[in-house]
Design goal:
Layout (H helix, E strand, L loop, with lengths): L1 E5 L2 E5 L5 E5 L5 E9 L5 E7 L7 E2 L10 H7 L7 E5 L2 H9 L5
Parallel strand pairs: 1-7
Antiparallel strand pairs: 1-2, 3-4, 3-7, 4-5, 5-6
Length: about 100
């Protein structure tokens, strides 16, 4: 079961959306973003985190890039042990994410 956040109410869902945020066990937030197509034409999704020294930090390197949100979660092995949040819009997800950036 994945967590789903809609405004101030907390709901749950077992279906992933295209706008997914992660809260790691240490409280650091992350989001999965579509980075566009690679040179083969495949979509490329990547996880970035709010914990960084000079901007957003990527997680796991290119080997963890997925062709969709679920593939990225599987490759980064985050389906277990992290809280996963699904949002209704990109704006809602990024607003939530920005609140976790400390510097």
């Amino acid at each position: 079961m994945k967590r789903y956040v809609e405004k101030e109410e907390e709901k749950t869902t077992n279906k992933l959306s295209n706008y997914v945020g992660i809260v790691f066990t240490d409280g650091v937030k992350g989001v999965i973003l579509n980075f566009g197509a690679n040179d083969k034409g495949d979509e490329r999704y990547h996880l970035i985190t709010s914990e960084a020294n000079d901007g957003n930090c990527y997680y796991g390197g290119v080997r963890c890039d997925g062709i969709n949100v679920q593939d990225t979660l599987i490759k980064t092995e985050l389906m277990k042990g992290c809280n996963i949040y699904c949002f209704d819009s990109y704006k809602e997800m990024m607003t939530w994410f920005a609140e976790g950036i400390k510097n």
